[in-house]
Design goal:
The complex is a heterodimer of chains A (about 250) and B (about 250). Chain A is an all-alpha fold. Chain A has one domain (about 1-230). Chain A contains 10 helices and no strands. Chain A is globular and about 70 Å long. With about 250 residues, chain B is mainly α. Chain B has 2 domains: about 5-75, 434 Repressor (Amino-terminal Domain) (Orthogonal Bundle), CATH 1.10.260; about 80-210, no CATH class. Helix content of chain B is about 60%, strand content about 0%. Chain B starts with a strand and ends with a helix. The chains are: A mainly alpha (about 250), B mainly alpha (about 250).
Chain lengths: ~250, ~250
């Protein structure tokens, strides 16, 4: 079940990325392409089999896990900036790009790095799965490391939720609102993943589901935004003219 | 409520006993699949009946009133009030009337309904449904319609904003306001003014009867609400464009 979810997430990210290749070549909205590229890399590393191979190539001491966390942070930062700007949420944009946002990012990076090395010093070098399986320090530290990796995504997602909700309530085109709804779902799951990572390990399946649902929501939302712009009539503004005398 | 299919087929058999379904569809311009679907579902839209009645050269109003749910339409229809008539004049025609009454220095003729002013456009216009309801509303009309029909006020408002109103609701609205039934059917475009039995010059006469002050105030209200609509559309368009620029 988890394996399916991992591969499905990777497939969805790859599909969204490939769809955006022509636009990226034309130089249109390369940032969104970058977001999707980072998301694809993240979901690639999130597939257990691929993670094992890549981690093995990098020395097998779990550094890939740390890289994955930083990639997620970078993706979330870009998504946050783009979504707040796209939705015209000036205060949200400031909370992400301004001093508060930088502090949140810096502290999250620090927390991830510190917990990572604590897990390593006191844990087995064979990666986190083994660490969480061990007793004592490991079982106490592994959830903290997992939680630290979800602090910044949760912070950004919480900021994104009010403007996304506001966009849903407008009379924007249906597809645009559908995209906002998907991103909102992704943001809700990303925010939930922080408390979920501290849940007992018997809830592992639910924890995984929340993580992957967050990625899927964000990526699918971006794809729908892109699609809505693609099929939009270029003269969609024709309605708002006096000559047509709308209601 | 749409018309029951059984009663509709009985009616069709009476008015066109020899015509096949294909003939009916051809002369009335209704798609065969549409009619077939409505008959299968047991509910025939009022517009279907009106199109067929019109194509057969009959009176759609009389044919509509031969159905139980529209029995109230039978008999001599109560003529529309002056306010209802004016509500069915398009905003641009009202503005033209304002200019036409102004002094020649501003491009007008300084009189009422000059022969040089172009004729009024036919109803319905772009905001005819809301303008009609506003014209007969005493402030409590929406509540009474909602209580009588069970339609939620926000759904009713949404229909008005979209310049739509189901024939059933149009009749219920007219009943709740105590005006003739034809006003709503004309405002929603189900019937033409002639089919509703309105005198050809009724709208123009109602417009000419407005004093300069009344006409100007009314045109101003219409312009304001048109401006609000246009501004909202422009804002939404800007919002959408921004989303596509950043996320599309």
């Amino acid at each position: 079940m988890m394996a399916i979810l991992e591969w499905v997430t990777l497939a969805v990210c790859c599909a969204a990325l490939l769809l955006r290749v022509p636009d990226a070549l034309r130089g249109r909205n390369r940032t969104v392409f970058g977001i999707l590229l980072l998301a694809t890399l993240c979901s690639l590393l999130a597939v257990s089999e691929l993670y094992a191979i890549i981690d093995g190539a990098l020395g097998g001491w779990g550094a890939t896990s740390l890289i994955l966390r930083f990639l997620v942070f970078a993706t979330v930062l870009l998504v946050g900036l783009r979504v707040t700007r796209g939705l015209g949420a000036a205060s949200g944009y400031k909370l992400i790009s301004g001093g508060t946002g930088r502090w949140a990012l810096g502290l999250s990076c620090l927390a991830v790095t510190v917990t990572f090395f604590l897990v390593h010093v006191y844990g087995t070098p064979a990666g986190l799965k083994a660490a969480s399986a061990g007793g004592g320090w490991n079982s106490a530290l592994a959830p903290l490391y997992a939680a630290a990796g979800r602090t910044y995504p949760a912070y950004v997602s919480l900021i994104l939720m009010p403007p996304l909700l506001a966009a849903l309530r407008t009379r924007l085109p249906h597809l645009v609102r559908a995209g906002a709804l998907l991103v909102l779902l992704g943001a809700s799951f990303a925010a939930m993943s922080l408390p979920a990572s501290l849940a007992p390990s018997s809830w592992a399946d639910a924890q995984h589901f929340v993580n992957y649902a967050a990625v899927l929501g964000y990526v699918a939302g971006l794809a729908v935004f892109w699609f809505s712009g693609l099929i939009a009539n270029p003269s969609g503004n024709a309605k708002a003219t006096l000559s047509n005398n709308p209601d | 409520m749409p018309l029951p299919a059984k009663a509709f087929q009985l009616w069709l058999h009476v008015v066109a006993p020899t015509a096949s379904t294909a003939d009916i569809c051809r002369i009335s311009g209704i798609k065969r699949t549409t009619l077939a679907q409505q008959l299968v579902r047991g509910k025939v839209a009022e517009t279907t009946l009106v199109s067929i009645s019109r194509a057969l050269g009959r009176s759609p109003l009389e044919d509509l009133s031969s159905f139980d749910s529209y029995a109230g339409l039978a008999g001599q229809p109560q003529p529309p009030t002056a306010a209802e008539l004016v509500s069915q004049i398009a905003t641009m025609d009202l503005l033209r009337a304002v200019i036409s009454r102004s002094s020649p220095a501003y491009g007008g003729y300084g009189d009422d309904g000059s022969s040089l002013t172009p004729a009024l456009g036919p109803a319905p216009h772009a905001t005819s449904v809301r303008n009609w309801v506003d014209a007969i509303d005493d402030g409590e009309l929406r509540h009474r319609v909602s209580a009588a029909t069970g339609v939620a006020p926000q759904n009713y408002s949404a229909q008005l904003t979209a310049n739509r109103l189901s024939p059933e609701l149009a009749v219920a609205t007219a009943r709740a306001a105590g005006v003739g039934f034809t006003g709503g059917l004309v405002a929603t475009g189900l019937l033409t003014e002639t089919e509703a039995g309105w005198a050809p010059e009724a709208k123009q006469a109602a417009l000419d009867a407005l004093s300069d002050g009344e006409l100007t105030a009314l045109a101003g209200e219409r312009l304001q609400s048109l401006g609000r609509t246009l501004r909202r559309q422009e804002q939404e368009h800007e919002q959408t464009k921004k989303i596509w620029e950043n996320l599309g």
